[in-house]
Design brief:
globular, 21% strand, 102 residues
């Protein structure tokens, strides 16, 4: 919502605030947050990374429909910390194996 974007922009005027981008949740809302995040990508410090299929998220990397490589490139470009956010140990192991092939 516009009022939320305005509030975040006010917070970003301070150097102590930065952005976290949860790419799977963004996918679940049809990319609604992505333009705003990219507009402020210089303040992006943290990415929650997981795959998603429609609104189902926290899937192992490579098992959904997202362009994971795009978000890894963004993380590298902005020197972001990336957290793999899966709900199972198997999902985490699958994601690590997927990353080894990246």
């Amino acid at each position: 919502e516009d009022f939320q974007k305005e509030a975040i922009e006010l917070l970003l005027e301070s150097k102590v605030f930065a952005l976290t981008f949860d790419v799977g949740h963004n996918h679940g809302i049809c990319g609604k947050d992505e333009d705003f995040i990219l507009k402020h990508k210089d303040r992006l410090n943290h990415i929650h990374l997981h795959d998603a299929q429609g609104r189902k998220n926290h899937l192992a990397l490579g098992t959904g429909e997202m362009d994971i490589e795009k978000y890894l490139s963004l993380a590298k470009e902005q020197n972001c910390r990336v957290v793999l956010e899966t709900k199972t140990i198997d999902g985490l192991k699958q994601s690590v194996e997927w990353l080894k092939g990246f």
